[in-house]
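During the reporting period, our protein records have gained a structure token line. One record among many is quoted in full directly below:
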Amino acid sequence: MAYNFKTFKSRRNTGSSKWGAMVQSNPSLPTDIIPLSVADMEFEVAPEIINGIKKRLTDNAILGYERPTDDYYTAIINWMAKIHNWQIQKDWIIPTGSVVPALVTAIQAFTNFEDKILIMTPVYYPFYDVINFTHRQVVDTPLTFDGENYQINFADFEKKAANSNVKMLILCSPHNPVGRVWKKAELEKIAKICLANDVLVVSDEIHADLLMPGYTHIPYATISEEAANNSVICTAPSKTFNLAGMKAANTIIKNSYLRRLFNDQQNRRGDGGMPVNILGQLSVQLAYSKGETWYHEMLTVIDDNRQYIEKYIKENIPEIKVLPLQGTYLQWWDCSGLGFQNEVELGNFMKEKALLFLDDGYLFGDISKQFERINIACPRNVLEKAMYRLNRAVQDLRNS
């Protein structure tokens, strides 16, 4: 490979959120323990991005107010066309600080206090927060799980979407944490139901680039002209290129009326129409225009890691079922076979016995208390050590 995906660098005492949380929970951990929880990578950022930022700071040492350039918008337009076959226009793109604040802006722009908002659970836990904090009501339409795969319960979804107080669906596509990449037929059915019931679709597509072989992400706005005009698409290079700390995202809205409402709401925050800072803007432009080779190599590494864990757990720890990963770099484990009575016992086992710092399933909804989510975007030797510790802990559990 042309890039380094093997070197591990400790992020202790650097301000890393997930590392800080791990050390806070157990300050005496050995130094080689790495958290596999929050969705940022343990890979160095592509050198094309780092070198481009260095060049900008060397060539122009002024860090004043800046707005996105034409090159910024062109990079986004070209990426969406090449990677997702999605033809978008400059005017549709609204730079936003990150996806979660964009969700808040959408909720405030398009709904009122006490309106109801649909989510498909288990789901990325900030979805609950952005609804509750804005004084709207969560309406849960649980995905069905047959022990192997997750599907949308369209009967339940349609029934709840028909409630006149339901004004919005926040769609997670690809779905975090269960790793589903929605098929075109599924998205078409979502669109049909939402259009029939005047439910706006806000689609979080931050993981859209992170696909396993054989799967294709379909941007919700490409389903039909009607779907495009009844949707708000939240995107960012942060997961794809490990740029979460740059706080740079883009919300893509074709409908000019919805776009104006969103812009007005964002501007009420008082950021002067510049929610993304200079280096955040530059990182987006560099990632989408210079990072494609790194991106494809990274996907190969993620897929290899996926296969390694699937094989290792199947052969050594059959009590855990690894669900098929179609998209994201977040693997979803059904740990009910370990026999714990509740989510506290399971979480304690992972942290205290296996020394694995994952995201506990209950965070994503009550229906997933016996699950764990693991971030596999890290060097292979990190996962090998983690699997060894898990295997040893499960053997002790069997013998107890």
